[in-house]
Amino acid sequence: MKSIKKRNMRRAESLSRQRQTLPQGQAGISPPRKIKEIWKSAHPILKTLSPIEWLGEWVAYCFKASAGLRLVAEFIALAIVVVTFIAFWLEYEQRGIDRGVRIATLFAQIAQVHALPDGKGLKALTPSVEALVRENVPIERIDLNGAVLAQANLSGADLSGADFSGGNLYRANLSGADLSETNLSGANLIGANLSGANLYSANISGTNLIGADLSEAGLYKANLAGANLYKANLAGANLRGADLAGAILEGSILIRTDFEKAKNVPSLKSAFAIPNRPPTNIPEGVEIPAKWVLPTK
Predict the structure, then answer these.
(1) Of 144, 190, 216, 295, which is least surrounded by CB within 10 A?
(2) Which residues pair with 258 in a beta bridge?
(3) Which helix or strand (DSSP H or E) is residue 37 part of?
(4) pLDDT of 191 higher than 80
């Protein structure tokens, strides 16, 4: 009997301490009753979310309590990562295949259109060629002689060894393009932008380059025989070893243009350069304006 009384007394003291820890005015309300009151006064949205929160707590409890459940969850997470990686890789592979098909189709279109009789397709090549350039596809050694690519954007394109002979590239953007060993003979490049282009050993004979921008272009060993460079910008261009037989340089800008070992350089009396920044390495015997101040050797 005494042990039962002591046990009841301890329970009473425990309940008394719990009531004392509750906020003032709530000491007489038991936890279940308090939860019911909050539930009754809660917003309808909270009533909807509460079961979800309880479900989340129950899942978290089961997850902590069961090692098997943790293993299943980790396996599912790993499976999701693997499946995602495989899906990404397959999509990447498919994009590569699609790009290859698209590029092959563009080359086929260019060949078909260029081969149309009487040059009917020469004016319809610009979209296909520009598309290949946008895809960063090298277009070296392609045959585009006589093609009409006026105002086409071919900036930075790899056109090395291509044949543009007799083509119309009026005001085309070829800045930074690789035109090494390209055949541009007899082409129309009036007003074209060739700044910074690589024209190493290119055939530019008889090409119309009136008003073209060739600043900082690399024309090393290029064939410029008979080219019309009237008022062309050759500032900073590299003409080392280039052949300028019969070329027209009247009114061209030759600021710091390098003529080292250039052959058949015509008179430069009508060319323009800042007096203290004339062309360099001008071959002996070439006529130059008296106001140019050439560096002493």
Answers:
(1) 295
(2) 238, 280
(3) helix 31-41
(4) yes
Helix (H, G, I), strand (E, B) or coil at 234: coil
- Residues β-bridged to residue 163: 143, 183
Amino acid at site 35? I
Token pair listed for 191: 């007003």
Q: Are 225 and 247 in contact (CB under 8 A)?
A: yes
The residue to which tokens 């909050």 are assigned: 38
Beta-bridged to residue 128, according to DSSP, are none
Give the residue-averaged pLDDT of 99-119. Answer: 84
Estimate to the nearest angstrom the gap between the alpha carbon of 156 and the chain centroid.
11
Q: Would the CA dihedral through 245, 248, 250, 253 be positive or negative?
A: negative
Those residues whose C-beta lies under 8 Å from the C-beta of residue 200, and which sit 6 or more positions away, are 180, 181, 218, 219, 220, 221, 222
> How far are the Cα atoms of 12, 64, 174 from residue 197, in angstroms, in the given order?
96, 67, 7
Give yes or no for a contact between 239 and 259, defined as CB atoms under 8 angstroms apart.
yes
Distances (CA, A) of 259 to 122, 221, 234, 249, 251: 36, 11, 11, 13, 17
Q: How would residue 274 be classed by pLDDT, with cut points 50, 70 and 90?
A: confident
The owner of tokens 């260019």 is 110
Q: What region, left, alpha or beta, does residue 99 occupy, with left being phi > 0 and alpha being psi -120 to 50 degrees?
A: alpha
CA distances from 270 to 87, 237, 240, 275, 290 (A): 66, 18, 21, 13, 11
What's the confidence (pLDDT) of residue 92? 83
